[in-house]
Every structure is written in structure tokens, then in C-alpha cells.
Amino acid sequence: MESKGTAARINVSRKSYERVYDIFEFEENQVVEIKPGHTISTYLLHQKHHDVDTLMKNKAAENMFARVNLYDPQSFNFKKLILQKEILTIFKSIAKGHYIDMVHFFISVLDYKEVMDDSNRYEIAKELVQTYLDESAPRRLKFKYMANAFGPFQLKFKDCNATKCPPDLFTNFENLCIRSLQEVFPDVVKSPIFESYIEKKKKEDAYGLKALLKSSTSNDSSLEDQEEEEKAFFLWCEKCGTEIINLENHRFNNFEFKQRISHLLDLSNWRLVFENEYGKTYFSPEGTHNHLSNSRRHVEIKYVYEIQNYRAEQVFNAWMDDSAFSTRLEQVESSTFIDFITDGKYGHAVYHEIYSMSFPQQNRELVHAYCCRYEQDTDRYVCITRSINNPKIPETSKFVRAEVKSAFLVEQLTDTTCRYYYSIIFDPNGWLNPEYFSSSFKETLENNFHAKLMRHVERFEKQNRAPSGGLVQSLKHYQSN
């Protein structure tokens, strides 16, 4: 039954009327005598209140959010929500003071990332820097630690030009904006505009609204949505917006591998500290912010060398083997495999490692997670690592808990040559300053990391055996999923 807009009398039973009276608009029933002694009830049908599909959708939406308080800021995944254009429009109308400039800057950065060519991006970037970031900028963003954030950004921006201007140039400022705008969010959810947005979203895009809530997953989510989900496990320094280790992040994912590989291959402005005929060793650019689990700043060391007469697979096999622990990080005197954790296609091995220190310093311990993968399209092997917390190894007074973060990549160049990249940040913590590891760095032609790695590879190859240990398990898990 469907109204076409013309009023008409119809004959329905009382039971039929009760089924549809809340969908259609009827006038009071009239009793009509059709012949002596026989009457029927009729109803004047005016129009539909709403069609059945809409009614069912509304009912489904109400059920979907029955146990969710959509006006509680804690119900939402803010990092997803803040990317919605309608929400940013609401923020523009609600924000006050210096938050207004943050909203406008954040919107401009999102637009900047959508620009496809470097030349146009570079022009936009220059305007954003002049307007919001430079020390003399008329609308300079007022973050608590603006100087800390602007320092590492300047290094990246100086390397930009009309032919090279990456979409992620403003990532650290994006992170700081998200953190700051989250402070305004409680005022936003109280506003009538936000209430209208929620009610409209419930009616027109209930599943889209659900995707903005915390712990919301979707099997058919886009790659962009999946990346946002993966980024949710990362932490960012409150002072400069760069990434810090989340010691409670017990998973590895595509986003982390992508970021770590990109950083590993980047040598722009890195400082050469040693070289020989096989390759070079670098320190990270001066002024960069390299963090572990806190805001302490470290110098990162990176090795880029070529190896003759060994294939990438042979080098990686030697690297994965449990006998390689003191090659990967000198002064590690023991390494014990304690756990293996899987999440989807990635699995990581957790090791408890003891780092030997000279008297009177106390020995350090590491709870160190290793995750491996093989990229068939590029024929390269990758292992990324970071410190992690694990209930099997609680902290004790016996050791000082140190932290580490590293990445190793080896790729085939020719039939007889491969190249590896290896970067590492190590923090002994305790009373020692964050520069301890880099300040004690010393390489000579006779005694250097590359020479030690080559000795290990040659020794392992002579044993003529397959590698063993948790790193091998990690690679096999990836290859089988």
C-alpha cells in the first residue's frame, strides 16, 4: 500500500489498520452502510509518515547505538573523527583563541596532502610556514613546546624544493594539532551543531558513524582506514610531535614497516662519520628528534654497506640466527628467547637481553621485540625491532632497564652483490645521558661494525646449517600468512 498524495477511502480490516496506522496518516474511520443491515469501516488515507525502509533503517540505527553514549567524548576515536570535514567545520565555529589558528592550519595541511605534484605542494608549504610556523609568522601556532617541534621540521623543510616536497612534511605538527584539539572536543560535543550532526549521521550513514567510534572494526574497510587503525597504536612526543615507542604496543603492522623502511633508506642530511671501500656509517642530522619511549633525544647510527659474493638471503639468515645477538648490538652478553606473539600476518619474537656495562655502572637489560618479513617484489629482507614490556620479565633492581630501536634491511643488487642498511638507537637510561651510545662510538679500518658482521656471516656459512630462533619463526609466520 503506498500513498501517491491523493486522499482516498479504502476498506481495510481492523487488524490491517493496526499494522500500518503508524506508517500512514488516516482520518477517523467512517461507518458506511453498503446495503440494509450491512456496514463497513473506511479510513481516509492522506499520505505516508515515512516509508517502511526508512522506518527499518531508523530502528536499526537506534539498536546499533543503544549502548553507546554519542555525547561522551570518550566514545569516539578522535584521530578518525577529526579528519571528517563536517566535524572540522564544527570545530571552526566552536574553537576560540589560539585554537582557531590550529583548526585552520590542520584543514590546510589535509588539503596540502591531497595535492598530487611536488611543485604545487611546495608553494603551499611555503605559505603555511610563513603564516603559521616561522618565528615571525602572523598566526604562529601556540604549542607549549613550539621550539622543540619547529627544530626537526626545519631540517625537513630545508631539504624541500619544487621537485621534492613530501606529503608527510607536516606530520609532527598534525600530531600536535590532534593532541591540542582534543582538549576542545568536550565543548564540541555539548554544542547543538554536534547534536544535529549526530542525528543526521544516524539517519543517513549509521555505519559511517559507527566506524568513528572506539573499538570499531570493519572487514571491508579501505586501506586508508586500515592505516589509521594501525597508527592508533603509536604514541607521539608531546613536545615535538615525532613518534615515540609505545612499550605496551604488542603488535607490528604494515604502517610501522612502511615508516621504518622509508626512514632507513633516507640519507638526506645524515652526517658521515666513517667509511671504507664497502660503505659508509652515518650519524642522524644534527637537531633531529630521535626518541625511544620518552622525550630524551638520541643520535641514531646508520650503516650502509655492500657485501660481495653473498646473497641477501645468506646475509639475512646469519642475521636471524640466535648466535647473532652480540653482532647486532655489541656488549650484549646473553640473549634469551622468552615469548612469541602473533597478530594477523605478523609475529614477533621477544628476547630478554643483558647488556654488559663497565664497573661501576650496573648492567642493563633489554626486553627486545624482533619482527621480520620478506618482500618478494623487491627481493629484500627486513627486520625491525623495538623495546617492549612483557609480563614474563618484570623490572627488578638487579638491572637497569635500557631501551633500543633498530631496523635491518638487506637487498640483492646483482647476482654477486647485496647491500644492507642498519640503523640503531640505544639508551642505557639510569644516570647516563642519552648521548652515551653515540659518544662512545668509535670505528677504525680494522675494527668496525661491517667487519664484525662479515666475520659472523662467514662463520655462519661455514657451519652449513639453517638459522634457528625466534626471528626465523617470525619470518616463517609472515611468509605463511
TrEMBL record:
It comes from the Eukaryota. Residues 309-462 form the START domain. One of its GO terms (cellular component) is cytoplasm. InterPro entries: RGS_sf, RGS_subdomain_2, START-like_dom_sf, START_lipid-bd_dom, START_lipid_transfer. Gene3D superfamilies: 3.30.530.20, Regulator of G-protein Signalling 4, domain 2 (1.10.167.10). One of its GO terms (molecular function) is lipid binding. Pfam families: START (PF01852). This is START domain-containing protein.
